[in-house]
Amino acid sequence: MKQVIEAFYEQFGSGGEIQSFFAPGRVNLIGEHTDYNGGHVFPCALSVGTYAAARKRSDAKLRLYSMNFPELGMIEADLSALVYEKEQEWANYPKGVAAKIREAGYPLSEGADIVYYGNIPNGAGLSSSASIELVTGVVLDAFAGLSIDRVELVKLAQAAENEFVGVNCGIMDQFAIGKGEKDHALLLNCQTLEYQKTPIHLEEETLVIANTNKRRGLADSKYNERRRECEEALGQLKTELEADFLGDISVEDFEAHKHVIDDPVTRQRARHVIYENARTIEAVEKLNAGDINGFGRLMNESHRSLRDDYEVTGHELDALVEAAWEEGAIGSRMTGAGFGGCTISIVPKADIETFKENVGEQYYKQTGLEADFYVVEIGDGAKRLEEEE
Ligand code: NG1
Ligand code: MG
């Protein structure tokens, strides 16, 4: 945090009260491509994330600077005229959050100077964007004394991403980052937003994120295509079953009625969502019963379903996951939208060094790419930091 405050002085000068804030990145343990289908997800907040040093302003200006994108320089905006500007890239996320807070009717008339620093690997599917949104949300909320309910702030951040930035994501990222808690994952029903904090006690094992370093070039267009396919499947099932979301439909009901989905590919997409939703609930039951191996087996099944039914993995993710399975991971799967990005694995602590070495080597052989490995800890949701942090 010290360097962030130093960068703040450099950008905006000293004087006045500078406060520190943090919002984590997130990783989803199981429940993939279920959020926008009203199903369950099981993400956790990470100990890496976005730091912000901020100072209140007495006018309506926002001045934003990211240590990760120094080439974009300082970006200025007026609270009363917030518009999306493509060339401002990352700064559209904070601007969008401010815009949504105001649109929701909160009295936000005074701005802030904010310096951001993120230590989340970029573009890897660990939600650096939602992290920037939520850290901005807590800064603006604290400075204006708004006391916005946390779940509402989560929804405003999602609205910023959907409507201001134009990324059609579900609620999972913002929820995990806004509501996460150290050493817990959240079993979230994405339709009702009911959630259960689940303690994760990994004593002999650890969570490992591995980045394929394959750019997720297709992710956006394929993401929207999958959303459309799911809507089509739901539309056809709807006449048979009373369901507003695929996530409402049980495995039994699906099996009894799947014939109404006439296109076999669309049927496959729906099958992934419905089984993945059931798998997520079952996986959390296993975890609560102390059955980490059972949890890992369901992670593996999740990957196969994303590979074969939902078709969002690709050669790199499959190679990395298969190498992890070979190397004795308790569970391993792709995480996030897919087509590149990261995998999440549960690995025995004692094997971690050989795991990284052998999986890395195998992955390189298969793809010609170097993977990066991160042993991660589950951290807290978005918050103001105390002095010593
Ligand atoms: P990633 O790829 O981690 O950004 C995306 C969506 C999530 C969710 C997952 C799939 C965005 C910003 N987020 O996550 O809401 O749908 O895919 O489970 O697009
Ligand atoms: Mg993102």
TrEMBL record:
Pfam annotation, one family: GalKase_gal_bdg
Amino acids binding Mg(2+): S129, E161
Alphabetic keyword roster: ATP-binding, Carbohydrate metabolism, Cytoplasm, Galactose metabolism, Kinase, Magnesium, Metal-binding, Nucleotide-binding, Transferase
Domain of life: Bacteria
Compartment list: Cytoplasm
Active site: D173
Higher taxonomy: Bacteria, Bacillati, Bacillota, Bacilli, Bacillales
Catalyzed reactions: alpha-D-galactose + ATP = alpha-D-galactose 1-phosphate + ADP + H(+)
EC number(s) given by UniProt: 2.7.1.6
List of residues binding substrate: E32, H33, T34, D35, Y223
Family: Belongs to the GHMP kinase family. GalK subfamily.
Binding-site positions, ATP: S66, G123, A124, G125, L126, S127, S128, S129
Role of this protein: Catalyzes the transfer of the gamma-phosphate of ATP to D-galactose to form alpha-D-galactose-1-phosphate (Gal-1-P).
Galactokinase N-terminal domain span: 6-56
Gene Ontology CC entries for this record: cytosol
The keyword S-adenosyl-L-methionine appears for this protein: no
Gene: galK
Residues the UniProt record annotates as site (Transition state stabilizer): R26
Known pathway: Carbohydrate metabolism; galactose metabolism
Protein name per Swiss-Prot or TrEMBL: Galactokinase
